[in-house]
Amino acid sequence: MAQYVAERPEIAEKRAEPVVPAAVPAAINPAPLGLCAFALTTFVLGAFYAGLFPAIGVTIIIGLALFYGGIAQLLAGMWEFRVGNTFGGVVFTSYGAFWLAFGYSLQNHLILSPTASAYFLLAWAIFTVMMLLAALRTNVALITTLVVVLLTIVALIIGEFGGGVNWFQIGGWLGIIAAVLAWYTAMAGLLASTKSAFHLPTWPIK
Description:
Number of strands: 0
Helix content: over 70%
Number of domains: 1
Oligomer: single chain
Structural class: mainly alpha
Number of helices: 8
Distance between the termini: 62 Å
C-alpha cells in the first residue's frame, strides 16, 4: 500500500489536503421554526386554561409539548447556535426543554403538588425576565411577545399558589395572546426570508 501511494503522489497530496468545513449560509434563520413551535403549543395549552375545552382533553397537549414545542424547538435552538445567534439558541433550547419537561410530567402524572408547580413556573418566570432584558435591543414584536409570556406565567403562578380559578383563565387568555404574537413574529421572519409580495414590520430597536 505504501509503495502504491509512493507511485501515485497525487493521491498523497489529496489525502494531505485539509478538510474545510462547509460554511453555513447567512440566509438560514431557524427563529420562525422555534417561534411557531412555541406559539402552537402555547395556544393549545392556553385554550385549556381559558376553559375553551374540558379538562379531560388536556392530554392533547402531551404530543405537542414533546414533539413540536419540545423537540422541534430544541432543534431550532441548536441551529441558532450553529448560525452564531447565542440569544436565539438559549431561548429556543430552554423553552424547548421546558415543553419536554412539561409534556413528560403530564404524561407520567408527576404534577401532584400545586405549590411545587408554582415554584417550577416561578423559576421559568425568572428565566423569562432574563431573556426579556437580553431582548431589549432587538425589536418590538419579540419584546412584546416575551412580556406577554411573562405575564402568562405570572398569572399561572398566582393560580397555583391558590389565587383561584380566575387566574388560570387569565393565564390561559394571556397564553393565547402570546401565541398570536409569537406567530406574528415568526411570520415576519418567514416573509423576510422569501421573495414575498409583502412584509410584516417588527419595529427594530436601534
